[in-house]
Amino acid sequence: MLAVACLIAGGLWIGLHVNLLPDSASVNAPIYDELFKVLFSIGAILFLGMLGLVIYSLIRFRRRDGETGEGIALEGNLPLEILWTAIPAVVVLFVGLYSYDIYERMGGMENMNQSSHDHSSMKTEQRIWGGIGASTSQLDSQRGLNPLPVEVTAMQFAFLFHYPQGDILTGELHVPIGRPVSMKMESNDVIHAFWVPEFRLKQDVIPGQPTILNFTPNKVGKYPIICAELCGPYHGGMRSTVVVEEPDAFDSWLSKNSKQTASET
Ligand code: CUA
Questions:
Q1: Looking at ligand 1, which residue's alpha carbon is closest to its atom 1?
Q2: pLDDT digits over 11-60, tens only?
Q3: Residue ranges making up the domain that contains 18
């Protein structure tokens, strides 16, 4: 009992104190990190527990001097078998339900509803993309700010970002801190995936079926955008950058680039 208590305490300590994740730069990130801490704690407890049992068995049941043969064959311990079936079942059930809850809190189910019901998805898109002022997700609506619309086009092997406001086309995503961003993404060729580890967000970009990704950045900095779906020989090079900046800096970037576009055309 003491060993099990120490194991659980040690696993929890590792799960809560060892941080393997990159910077956290969106409102989503703390929700995701909560799940990661729980999974990491469970993983640490199971890993250390099994490792401990293996090492204990290696020492306790080693072949001693003068011993020959295979040792005693043990089989058929019903209570033990029930226990080692029940524990993983409970753990897996808990992890499944908890992950679902986290996914829902991050607005994942909302996006799924948008893409699974074609007719309502048109309306939802109209709501976000037609009328500014509509809320984009549970998280974003809390902030009460107009979402910034960005159209994303993925292709072999780049992301292109188009800002309807100012008609800017760029390969580098710029977003202001603290304001919800609503991205409508579509692919020109094969399936890609938009991934920003610091935002804890990943969404497939699919040809012929737009996907919506909403997020609110909350830390100034430059973060990598990585394609997370094997999409061809240069998949590994399909990277870009998202620049999260203060509203003033973003506004000046926006006006500077929309002027350039205006003078070019
Ligand atoms: Cu695009 Cu991998």
A1: 192
A2: 999 988 888 889 899 998 999 999 999 999 999 999 999 999 999 999 99
A3: 2-60+81-105
Cα 156 to ligand 1 centre (Å): 7
Q: How far is the CA of 195 from the centre of ligand 1 (A)?
A: 10
CA 3 – CA 17 distance, rounded (Å): 21
Total number of domains in the chain: 2
In a domain, 101, yes or no: yes
Residue with tokens 């590792």: 14
Whether 226 is covered by a domain: the verdict is: yes
Go through 217-256 and write b for each residue having 16 or more CB atoms within 10 A of its CB, e for each that does not.
bbeeeebebbbbbebeeebeebebebbbbeeeebeebbee
210 CA distance to ligand 1 centroid (A)? 16
Residues lining ligand 1, judged by CB closer than 6 Å?
A: 157, 192, 227, 229-231, 235, 238
Atom number in ligand 1 closest to CA 192: 1
Q: Which residue shows structure tokens 């292709």?
A: 155
For ligand 1, the distance from its centroid to the CA atom of residue 248, given in whole angstroms, is 33
pTM of the predicted model as reported, rounded to 2 decimal places: 0.75
E strands present in 128-198 = 148-155, 158-163, 168-170, 173-176, 181-187, 192-196
